[in-house]
Amino acid sequence: MVASASLASTAEATKVGAVAKRHVPVGATGVPADMVKCWPYEVDQAPVLKIGQVVDELEAEFPALTVSKVRYLEDAQLISPYRKGGPQGHRRYSRAHVERLRYILTRQRDDLCHLQAIGQTLSELDQGKADENPAVGPQLVTNNGELVVNLPNDQLLSVSQLAKRLGVSIAQIEQVVEARITAPDAKGRFDARTAQVVRLALEASKRGIPLRNLRSVSMAADREAELIGNTARLHTRGAGQDSCALGLELAQLVSALHTTLLEKAVLSDC
């Protein structure tokens, strides 16, 4: 009788163990054998966190983070949680997933980086092809008492670097971008001219012109740039001249003309 009970107990244990192994095959480190590891590899990969716990942990840094946002980033293939029990099983996240999310959200917030660019960087990091050492930030200088951006052509500013050097908040820079006055590049970086546009737009806003009203200035510049570009290409075609050099020369002339006309119009109302 005892032997029968023992055999039954052993059989049941074997059955339970087989089911557990089939659904969650765990290795010596607590990482399921069928789980795809991701960058950062030096962080614990064991999937022990529920999606709500992940949101709770990151909420202090990213108050707008929700469960829906995490799932959206999953749909965008930027993060792939482990599915406990199969493809339709419950999501489980590791500490590495948390740090990966922190990286994604930080790049979005601080660098205004598009998800496509973030995804490309993550893919390179997953393959060990990218180095995340931060670049040395370029500096701002003053010109006749006015703060200007003085960057070499090969140096760019992240939104956090630009905010620090202009003495403004990241939110203020985001407002300029949201007003569609200017925009960073595909990787969320600002070159010298774009950074200068941000500075001037914020200064105009500080003096009473709403940012949304400055959108018309940006649109006018785009129209003038198209005119100048077409003119420069037409007059340098077949002549072996640099159309960009002529374009910049024309831009300076048009800019001076615009300034003179604008000042004349303002003075006429005084």
TrEMBL record:
Source organism of this protein record: Actinomyces graevenitzii F0530
Annotated GO MF terms: DNA binding
Protein name listed in UniProt: Transcriptional regulator, MerR family
Leader peptide range in chain numbering: none
Pfam families: MerR_1
GO terms of biological process kind: regulation of DNA-templated transcription
Ranges for domain HTH merR-type: 65-124
Organism domain of life: Bacteria
